[in-house]
Write a structure and sequence with these properties.
single chain; alpha/beta; 5-stranded parallel beta sheet; 5-stranded mixed beta sheet; 9 helices; 23% strand
């Protein structure tokens, strides 16, 4: 069982005993439980019975094919976030990331060897703050909602905290270090489950309510960033709608929030959403 004070479970597969022991120590230092194995069959059994929150998979092992491990995790529909560890170049790591995404796995980040304790903590810190995703498949119910119903539902989601934020690491292609994070919004509806951003963001833009999403994401993400990443040189990216660029008070709202949280504004990057 997970210890009462644990932040989650991390399962590691690596055939280098020294590296595995060091990685496990870094994981425990970050507040997580950890288990380590170098055997694929043992790894699959532990993953099935222990139900880890993260799995860290070394791509290059003498007796185990790392990509085969990822494929197995996809076949059994593992809910663990996959962290890819390797001493290979950034192109190989990126290819493995794309493979994981294409096969329906939750991507938890990359650890390029040699890694530091801070790198391990940063990757694991990304996915532990948001509400648990529903077990049912994502459902798009917005096609059944008229404008009035959508407005009511969105305002209720904001008021009740049903809009959550997950943090995607931005990793340097040169040395694999975490350079920052992108804040990504998720709507966890208490009845309909996960409503995907590509569904509700364009709708919010069309009815003039996207500022509610921007403010909610900004408050959650900047508070997280100020609390957990204040002593780093990392940047935080926040998506905004192009329609908000015409709002005269967008800069005032964001600057005021940064000031309250004692964050330098130059550490915050605004990215215009693809939909607009």
């Amino acid at each position: 069982m997970t210890a009462p004070t644990s932040r989650g479970r991390v399962l590691i597969i690596d055939d280098d005993r020294l590296v595995a022991a060091m990685l496990s120590a870094h994981v425990r230092a970050a507040g997580f439980d950890s288990k380590v194995t170098s055997d694929a069959a043992d790894f699959y059994q532990i993953e099935r019975e222990w139900e880890p929150d993260f799995v860290i998979v070394d791509l290059v092992m003498d007796r185990v094919d790392g990509l085969a491990v990822l494929k197995h995790l996809a076949e059994v529909k593992s809910r663990a976030a996959v962290v890819i560890a390797s001493g290979m170049g950034s192109k190989i790591l990126d290819a493995a990331r794309q493979f994981a995404g294409a096969n329906g796995l939750s991507y938890g980040g990359v650890l390029a060897k040699p890694f530091r304790r801070a790198d391990v903590a940063a990757v694991l810190d990304v996915s532990v703050k948001h509400p648990e995703a529903p077990k049912e498949p994502a459902v798009d119910v917005l096609t059944t909602w008229d404008a009035e119903r959508f407005e009511v539902e969105l305002k209720e989601a904001v008021a009740q905290g049903h809009l959550g934020v997950v943090y995607q690491p931005k990793v340097s292609c040169l040395d694999g270090t975490v350079m920052g994070f992108e804040a990504l919004v998720r709507w966890y509806h208490p009845v309909h489950g996960l409503i995907v951003p590509t569904s509700f963001i364009p709708r919010a833009e069309s009815v003039g309510l996207v500022h509610l999403i921007t403010d909610t994401v900004a408050e959650q993400a900047l508070t997280w960033f100020a609390t957990h990443r204040a002593q780093t040189r990392e940047h935080l990216s926040i998506n905004i709608s192009a329609s908000e660029l015409t709002e005269s008070d967008l800069d005032r709202r964001l600057v005021a929030l940064c000031r309250d949280l004692r964050l330098y504004t130059e550490r915050v990057v605004l990215e215009v959403t693809e939909t607009s």
